[in-house]
Amino acid sequence: VGVAISRAVAGQGLPESVFALVEGGIDVGQALVQDPAIAAVGFTGSYRGGKALWDLANARPRPIPVFAEMGSVNPVAVLPSAATSEWAKPYAGSLTLGIGQFCTNPGLLLGGGPEFDAFLIEVAALLDQVPEGTMLTPEIAASYEAGVQRLRAHPAVRELTTPRSGATPALFVTAAAAVEADPDLAEEVFGPCALAIDGLSPQELPVFVGSLKGQLTGTVLVGDEPKDVAGPVLEALAQTCGRVIVNGMPTGVEVGEAMHHGGPWPASTDSRFTSVGTAAIRRWLRPVCYQGVPKDLLPQELL
């Protein structure tokens, strides 16, 4: 990939320094963030990794901005009339897209009532049909299996899918009270794994959503519920998430002017900026105001 990008840069007549690829592990990333020649950092990965780089950047004599996108469970609130077969297949497809290795992977399902219970059973049956996949690295695969095993071992959690090993989909269910007692239950398991929070009425959904950490995306599936039922859920998601979706799946990320791919901490370190979409370039711009400067002294870019 690096060679192809270098050729493209050269083909456009741009300086070689426009693109550079440095490969290595944690030590290389830490060295780059601390190097005085680096003026800003972009990162996509775990909360632990992003927070470590953010701390290093802020410990510099002259701190620099870190635009870290650190993952999310991307809650999907399912209102009763939308808990149907119409949404079971799209949800299962979104959860397993790319072996679940998308930062917009919908790993938290919220709902309640008999319709939601039937919806979960249907989703579990669809996930059982998905074969084992190959994850990006052995380390990611091992981390996924550890996360799944952690949920399997929790006394307040029940697995709805057939237990399998390896990079296979898994759907678990628990109650809101269990998450309140153990918030780590709602942490991201990077891969095709989801946790359903059952027993939430439409009126309880906004309260639960408001208790979540910052997220990249939040979705509400709506059927024939009136505005005064769906509206509070949507408003709660907007307070918690960087992108709000109605009757869609969060893995549908379009690279366009309206796209925002960020969210309140810890989804990202700066929720004002996006790492996907045409506005992403603003992360690397520093505004400068030239006041009263004669035309012949202005930078070439402003002439």
Description:
The protein has helices at about 1-10, 25-35, 45-60, 85-95, 115-130, 140-155, 175-180, 205-210, 225-240, and strands at about 40-45, 65-70, 75-80, 110, 160, 170-175, 195-200, 215-220, 240-245. The model has no long low-confidence stretch (mean pLDDT about 95). The two termini are about 35 Å apart. Strands 5-6-7-4-3-8-9 form a 7-stranded mixed beta sheet, with helices on both faces. The protein has a two-stranded parallel ribbon with strand order 1-2. By secondary structure, it is of the alpha/beta class. The longest helix is centred in the middle third of the chain and has 16 residues, at about 115-130. The radius of gyration is 22 Å and the shape is globular. Helix 4 (about 85-95) packs across helix 5. It contains 9 helices and 9 strands.
